[in-house]
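Service request form, structural biology core

Requester: graduate student, group of Dr. S.
Request type: structure prediction, single chain
Budget code: on file
Notes: please return the result as structure tokens.

Sequence provided:
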Amino acid sequence: MLHQIQGLHHVTSLASSAQRNNAFFTNVLGLRRVKTTVNFDAPDVYHLYYGDAVGSPGSVMTYFPFPYAARGKRGAGEVGTTAFAIPLGSSTAWAERLAQFDVASIVQDTLFGAARVQFDGPDGDHFALIESESDGAPWTAGGVPVSMAITGFHSVALRLADTGAMVELLTFMGYARLETYGGITRLAVDGGNAANTIDLHATPSAPEAKQGAGSVHHLAFAVENRARQLEVREALIDTGYAVTPVIDRDYFHAIYFRTPGGVLFEVATNEPGFDRDEDTANLGQALKLPSQHEHLRSKLERTLEPLEA
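Core staff response, request fulfilled:
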């Protein structure tokens, strides 16, 4: 069993509009845009990162906004819900705030005893805000008071036709089963960051999910550094998984592998972080390009959708 995994690092999804995506996460949810860059493989498309005040591992939601992309279709074999942690007692205030912004599909309920607000994002992405104790570093310059500000991820929920193989994989990755209720099995990893929980939702009769705008592209788990990442890579390969070589993503190093349920997993390093090329006070303000795409700067600055600060 692995011991290097610390919980979630980031969640990366697809969108259909950079402007609308940026407005939703910064204005409605009050997250900080901690990095503005482009897709390594499609530099004419942004890669936008939103998180807490410093872009801590376990707080960062990232997006590839492909203009006018068709919506994905929900089903089995995907991350069905991305859940953020909010302070205890703040769920009703959040439901009221979301309603003020005409956010779709707002539902207040509880899950495993914790108060929760469910809602949909601008591309039909499904989110939840879950009351939780956390000592994160929330961004409070986005119009959301500290008493209700998002502190990072709480968990993600995977929708799977069969959860058995995923339980086996996550157990190998250091997660332990906590409880099961209503077809949802909760697992968590000890000793890591606050984003240490994974829910597995068994949906045996659901059709296969199809990716598009509003779909999670991949789910990234955190490890401290490249040495720990190489240990994880070797162990996964020894277990029979086809794992990519280490890829430099500028702000972390990444490896990827496809899981039995169809969800793409990444293992990302906490180092070097989002302050490697701009100071903490100005995170996300300037367009940062991978070195191989720097020669495209003048074109990209003309053609990429303008974003609010």
